[in-house]
Amino acid sequence: MGRRWAPGICAVALICLAAAATGDPDPNELERAYPIVEPDYGHTKLRLSEQGLEAIRRIENPIAVVGVIGPYRSGKSFLLNQLLSLSCDKGFGVGHMRDTKTKGIWIWGTPIEMDVDGTKVSVLYLDTEGFESVGKSNVYDDRIFALATVLSSVLIYNLPETVREADISRLSFAVDIAEEFYGRVKGGDIAFEPAKLLWLIQRDFLQGKSVQQMVNEALQRVPNDNGDKYIDEVNQIRDSLAVMGNNSTAFSLPQPHLQRTKLCEMDDKELDPLYVKRREELKQVVGSIIKPKFVQGKTLNGKEFVSFLEQVKY
Length: 314
Description:
The chain is built from 9 helices and 11 strands. The protein has helices spanning 7-13, 50-57, 76-83, 138-151, 165-182, 211-219, 229-240, 273-289, 302-311, and strands spanning 33-39, 46-48, 63-69, 105-108, 112-116, 119-128, 154-160, 196-202, 248-253, 294-295, 298-299.
């Protein structure tokens, strides 16, 4: 609470992305994860990774992006591998150590082709560095969250157990920064076009209420008849999310297995049957809400998407 940047400060202090040439990807080796945004040595600034950008430039269809954001060690990379039906040794890197495995923002190099309302769309899956890990500032985490919000057409907010006040505040702040990013795109004032937000709550039991009810209650304004300043700030945070409109949904996913550090060694027969069932339902939900990424009312192919990313860096 209380971490708010004025627009002028935001414009100066947000994100400095510098292209880091790392070579073009081999067309025969695109079936792997590529970084598109990487941290500098001090984990204070971000830079573009040319190798990942080149993988995107090759895409000729309109692009849709499914991004996953959330705390470190919350299972984001494992979840993405599950959505892509990839094993851990072939998909996004999965870590169980104290330090987060994913650094910056990564994409899966081979997009999934889908038909969306009669249009052939290439869907990219995007993994992000988890927030609240050791050795990083809140400012760095907010940049990652905001950039994922800007790039995604579907943003999965992966949260363990429940929705905390800090989770709502972080989302609100990311939306504020994302709007600043949009202001840097050439062509005048660009209206922020928010991603479809999917609150994914990893929880086995909801005690009589649906996950949608839990999220709705968490986002409700708090009565403040006495004019309490803290409650007023809480409500201001909720009001700032109005830009998201009704553009969100909620879904619950039970834990796949009690032994989380061994998940990569297990096949579906060893995982909780309810988890497997819900995972397949989640795939259907994600597929049903995927839309191409729009900027200024237009879809973006690979080259246009990279150009958009390069413009928001300033």
